[in-house]
Amino acid sequence: MSKIAVIFYGPPGAGKGTQANLLVWRKNFIHFDSGKFLEQLVHDPQNKNNKIIQRERKLFDTGALMTPSVVLKFSSEKAKEVAKAGFNMVFSGAPRTLYEAFGSDANKNNGLMAVLEKYYGKKNIYPFLIDIKPEISIQRNGKRLVCSVCANAILYDNASHKHKTCPLCGAPLRQRILDNPTVFKTRIEEYENRTLPILTQLKKRGYKVIKVDGRPSPFKVHEMVLRKLIV
Q1: CATH number for the domain including 95?
Q2: Any residues with CB less than 8 A from the CB of 73 and at least 6 apart, and which?
Q3: Of 67, 104, 127, 223, which is most buried, counting CB atoms within 10 Å of its CB?
Q4: By C-alpha distance, which of 41, 50, 47, 48 is closest to 71?
């Protein structure tokens, strides 16, 4: 059976990372969580004197997308590494800009999609759109807490939950910088203006973007995803 690559798109709070992790846990995918990777990169104390990374940190911490060429370098390297090792791969929200996805006008073969097509084959790439309304996205992210160690997100329906520590590893919970209301507003704008156009281009290039309802519980969304995949 051919190996496949899955890309989850959707606004902040859609559950992209959760769906990617469910494929990891149940179907042995490798998940490149670009958001988590970049957050760790820009906040690593060892990079405090790296001018390029500190420049990117200023973008990251305000909710703006990082420089596309920097992100593309990391994501392409990871995609090649995983593909050559023979694993299925899943991305949560990446590539995030047209440049990251398709390269520059001068070189349209240096984007992440070209890398995935080379190593997985176009027919084995599955782009998903996890669809939720903006008000649900705002509600989810405004109350979201994540584990400070394993990054496990706490699932709850209202603000009355009493969790202070992670039920998985016991570490303290925290609110991500990206979930600050002011930062979140910028993230929504960045998604709508810079990421959503990728889906239009994918359709023009012959891809079928698979739309799933992001409102149900994660395990139900996961079941909808599996029905669309051959794994």
Answers
A1: 3.40.50.300
A2: none
A3: 127
A4: 41
